[in-house]
Inverse folding.
Protein backbone atom coordinates (compact mmCIF):
# COMPACT_ATOMS: atom_id res chain seq x y z
CA UNK A 1 0.00 0.00 0.00
CA UNK A 2 0.91 3.63 0.10
CA UNK A 3 1.04 5.98 3.03
CA UNK A 4 2.03 9.59 3.40
CA UNK A 5 2.07 10.98 6.93
CA UNK A 6 2.21 14.55 8.13
CA UNK A 7 1.25 16.19 11.42
CA UNK A 8 -2.34 17.39 11.37
CA UNK A 9 -1.80 20.80 12.92
CA UNK A 10 1.03 23.09 13.92
CA UNK A 11 1.17 26.53 15.46
CA UNK A 12 3.90 29.15 15.39
CA UNK A 13 4.43 32.85 15.89
CA UNK A 14 5.32 35.55 13.41
CA UNK A 15 9.01 35.73 12.61
CA UNK A 16 9.69 32.21 13.81
CA UNK A 17 10.88 29.16 11.89
CA UNK A 18 8.73 26.06 11.52
CA UNK A 19 9.54 22.63 10.11
CA UNK A 20 6.77 20.44 8.72
CA UNK A 21 7.73 16.79 8.44
CA UNK A 22 6.47 14.23 5.97
CA UNK A 23 7.18 10.52 5.87
CA UNK A 24 6.15 8.32 3.01
CA UNK A 25 5.88 4.66 2.14
CA UNK A 26 4.97 4.21 -1.49
CA UNK A 27 5.34 1.49 -4.09
CA UNK A 28 7.50 3.76 -6.20
CA UNK A 29 9.18 7.14 -5.96
CA UNK A 30 9.83 9.74 -8.61
CA UNK A 31 9.70 13.01 -6.74
CA UNK A 32 8.22 14.70 -3.69
CA UNK A 33 6.25 17.91 -3.92
CA UNK A 34 5.13 20.47 -1.37
CA UNK A 35 2.06 22.61 -1.95
CA UNK A 36 0.40 25.40 0.01
CA UNK A 37 -3.38 25.51 0.10
CA UNK A 38 -5.57 28.21 1.60
CA UNK A 39 -9.08 27.17 2.54
CA UNK A 40 -11.35 26.83 -0.48
CA UNK A 41 -8.58 27.55 -2.94
CA UNK A 42 -6.38 25.54 -5.27
CA UNK A 43 -3.00 24.32 -4.05
CA UNK A 44 0.00 26.37 -5.13
CA UNK A 45 3.35 24.79 -5.86
CA UNK A 46 6.13 25.40 -3.35
CA UNK A 47 8.92 22.94 -4.00
CA UNK A 48 10.07 19.73 -5.63
CA UNK A 49 12.73 17.24 -4.56
CA UNK A 50 13.77 14.14 -6.43
CA UNK A 51 17.35 13.78 -5.20
CA UNK A 52 18.52 13.73 -1.59
CA UNK A 53 19.36 17.05 -0.08
CA UNK A 54 18.08 20.52 0.52
CA UNK A 55 16.38 22.80 -1.98
CA UNK A 56 16.15 26.44 -0.96
CA UNK A 57 13.75 28.95 -2.39
CA UNK A 58 13.55 32.22 -0.54
CA UNK A 59 11.86 31.74 2.83
CA UNK A 60 10.99 28.15 1.97
CA UNK A 61 13.32 25.16 1.92
CA UNK A 62 12.59 21.49 1.40
CA UNK A 63 14.70 18.49 2.30
CA UNK A 64 14.55 14.92 1.09
CA UNK A 65 16.06 11.65 2.28
CA UNK A 66 14.98 8.84 -0.02
CA UNK A 67 16.58 6.11 2.09
CA UNK A 68 14.50 7.23 5.08
CA UNK A 69 11.35 8.03 3.15
CA UNK A 70 11.42 11.44 4.76
CA UNK A 71 11.04 15.06 3.77
CA UNK A 72 10.52 18.33 5.54
CA UNK A 73 9.41 21.80 4.55
CA UNK A 74 11.12 24.62 6.40
CA UNK A 75 9.46 28.00 6.58
CA UNK A 76 11.52 30.92 7.84
CA UNK A 77 10.52 34.41 8.98
CA UNK A 78 6.93 33.36 9.32
CA UNK A 79 4.23 35.79 8.31
CA UNK A 80 0.54 35.78 9.09
CA UNK A 81 -0.21 35.02 5.45
CA UNK A 82 1.66 31.73 5.82
CA UNK A 83 -1.31 30.40 7.78
CA UNK A 84 -2.54 27.67 5.45
CA UNK A 85 -2.55 23.96 4.86
CA UNK A 86 0.71 22.45 3.59
CA UNK A 87 0.42 19.33 1.48
CA UNK A 88 3.13 16.75 0.96
CA UNK A 89 2.69 14.76 -2.25
CA UNK A 90 4.60 11.92 -3.88
CA UNK A 91 4.82 10.98 -7.53
CA UNK A 92 5.27 7.24 -7.63
CA UNK A 93 5.82 6.64 -11.30
CA UNK A 94 7.11 8.30 -14.43
CA UNK A 95 6.74 11.98 -15.14
CA UNK A 96 3.19 12.84 -16.08
CA UNK A 97 1.54 10.52 -13.59
CA UNK A 98 -0.64 11.66 -10.72
CA UNK A 99 0.47 12.88 -7.32
CA UNK A 100 -0.59 11.09 -4.17
CA UNK A 101 -1.23 13.52 -1.34
CA UNK A 102 -0.83 13.35 2.40
CA UNK A 103 -3.65 14.71 4.55
CA UNK A 104 -1.97 18.07 4.91
CA UNK A 105 -0.70 20.06 7.86
CA UNK A 106 -2.70 23.09 8.96
CA UNK A 107 -0.30 25.79 10.10
CA UNK A 108 -1.58 28.66 12.21
CA UNK A 109 0.67 31.69 12.57
CA UNK A 110 -0.11 34.10 15.38
CA UNK A 111 1.26 37.52 16.19
CA UNK B 1 3.21 30.17 -16.65
CA UNK B 2 0.73 27.36 -17.10
CA UNK B 3 -2.87 28.15 -16.21
CA UNK B 4 -5.81 25.80 -15.83
CA UNK B 5 -9.19 27.49 -15.77
CA UNK B 6 -11.88 25.58 -13.88
CA UNK B 7 -15.61 26.38 -13.96
CA UNK B 8 -17.86 26.78 -12.16
CA UNK B 9 -16.22 27.87 -8.90
CA UNK B 10 -19.22 26.77 -6.95
CA UNK B 11 -22.53 25.15 -7.73
CA UNK B 12 -25.61 24.15 -5.79
CA UNK B 13 -27.81 21.51 -7.33
CA UNK B 14 -30.80 19.44 -6.37
CA UNK B 15 -30.44 15.80 -5.52
CA UNK B 16 -30.84 13.62 -8.62
CA UNK B 17 -29.61 16.20 -11.11
CA UNK B 18 -26.29 16.25 -12.99
CA UNK B 19 -23.52 18.80 -12.82
CA UNK B 20 -20.71 19.37 -15.31
CA UNK B 21 -17.35 20.79 -14.28
CA UNK B 22 -14.92 22.04 -16.92
CA UNK B 23 -11.18 22.44 -16.85
CA UNK B 24 -9.40 24.24 -19.66
CA UNK B 25 -5.68 24.61 -20.13
CA UNK B 26 -5.30 28.18 -21.30
CA UNK B 27 -1.78 28.47 -22.59
CA UNK B 28 -0.68 24.92 -23.11
CA UNK B 29 -1.98 21.61 -24.31
CA UNK B 30 -2.83 19.07 -21.63
CA UNK B 31 -3.07 15.55 -22.97
CA UNK B 32 -3.70 14.36 -19.41
CA UNK B 33 -5.80 15.80 -16.60
CA UNK B 34 -6.14 14.46 -13.07
CA UNK B 35 -9.38 14.85 -11.13
CA UNK B 36 -9.32 15.01 -7.36
CA UNK B 37 -11.97 15.28 -4.67
CA UNK B 38 -11.39 16.86 -1.29
CA UNK B 39 -13.71 16.60 1.69
CA UNK B 40 -13.41 19.13 4.54
CA UNK B 41 -10.13 18.81 6.44
CA UNK B 42 -9.17 15.84 4.28
CA UNK B 43 -6.53 15.35 1.65
CA UNK B 44 -6.94 15.49 -2.09
CA UNK B 45 -8.05 12.06 -3.22
CA UNK B 46 -7.37 11.08 -6.82
CA UNK B 47 -10.57 10.06 -8.56
CA UNK B 48 -9.54 9.53 -12.14
CA UNK B 49 -7.16 10.42 -14.91
CA UNK B 50 -8.46 11.67 -18.23
CA UNK B 51 -6.49 11.30 -21.43
CA UNK B 52 -7.20 13.03 -24.69
CA UNK B 53 -8.38 10.51 -27.24
CA UNK B 54 -8.88 7.58 -24.89
CA UNK B 55 -11.01 6.44 -21.99
CA UNK B 56 -10.44 7.81 -18.53
CA UNK B 57 -8.78 5.67 -15.90
CA UNK B 58 -10.64 5.51 -12.60
CA UNK B 59 -9.23 4.84 -9.16
CA UNK B 60 -10.51 1.92 -7.18
CA UNK B 61 -13.83 2.65 -5.56
CA UNK B 62 -14.81 5.49 -7.89
CA UNK B 63 -17.98 4.78 -9.86
CA UNK B 64 -17.27 5.44 -13.51
CA UNK B 65 -20.97 5.58 -14.38
CA UNK B 66 -21.54 8.25 -11.78
CA UNK B 67 -18.50 10.39 -12.47
CA UNK B 68 -18.28 10.76 -16.23
CA UNK B 69 -15.00 12.11 -17.47
CA UNK B 70 -14.40 13.31 -20.99
CA UNK B 71 -11.23 14.73 -22.49
CA UNK B 72 -12.71 16.29 -25.59
CA UNK B 73 -9.64 18.10 -26.83
CA UNK B 74 -6.07 18.94 -25.91
CA UNK B 75 -7.33 21.89 -23.87
CA UNK B 76 -10.58 20.66 -22.32
CA UNK B 77 -11.41 18.00 -19.77
CA UNK B 78 -14.81 17.69 -18.11
CA UNK B 79 -16.19 15.87 -15.08
CA UNK B 80 -19.93 15.26 -14.92
CA UNK B 81 -21.42 14.18 -11.62
CA UNK B 82 -24.59 12.30 -12.59
CA UNK B 83 -27.59 11.81 -10.33
CA UNK B 84 -25.90 13.78 -7.60
CA UNK B 85 -26.62 13.02 -3.96
CA UNK B 86 -25.78 15.00 -0.83
CA UNK B 87 -22.82 12.72 -0.14
CA UNK B 88 -21.29 13.92 -3.42
CA UNK B 89 -20.99 17.40 -1.94
CA UNK B 90 -17.29 18.13 -1.98
CA UNK B 91 -14.50 20.23 -3.47
CA UNK B 92 -13.54 18.95 -6.91
CA UNK B 93 -10.28 20.04 -8.46
CA UNK B 94 -8.41 19.23 -11.64
CA UNK B 95 -4.68 19.16 -12.20
CA UNK B 96 -2.42 19.01 -15.23
CA UNK B 97 1.02 17.38 -15.04
CA UNK B 98 4.25 19.35 -15.47
CA UNK B 99 5.68 20.03 -18.88
CA UNK B 100 8.77 21.66 -20.26
CA UNK B 101 10.76 23.33 -17.50
CA UNK B 102 7.81 23.57 -15.15
CA UNK B 103 8.22 21.15 -12.25
CA UNK B 104 4.97 21.70 -10.46
CA UNK B 105 1.58 20.32 -11.33
CA UNK B 106 -0.90 23.02 -12.30
CA UNK B 107 -4.22 23.03 -10.49
CA UNK B 108 -7.54 24.52 -11.43
CA UNK B 109 -9.18 26.81 -8.91
CA UNK B 110 -11.58 24.10 -7.76
CA UNK B 111 -15.35 23.66 -7.74
CA UNK B 112 -17.35 23.59 -4.54
CA UNK B 113 -20.34 21.31 -5.18
CA UNK B 114 -23.25 21.31 -2.77
CA UNK B 115 -26.09 18.89 -3.39
CA UNK B 116 -29.32 19.69 -1.56
Amino acid sequence: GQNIDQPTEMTATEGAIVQINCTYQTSGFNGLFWYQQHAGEAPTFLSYNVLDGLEEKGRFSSFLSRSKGYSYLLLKELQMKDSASYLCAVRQNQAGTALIFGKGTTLSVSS
Amino acid sequence: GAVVSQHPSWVICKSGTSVKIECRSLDFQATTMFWYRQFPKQSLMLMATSNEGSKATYEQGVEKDKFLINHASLTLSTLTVTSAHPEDSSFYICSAPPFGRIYGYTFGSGTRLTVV
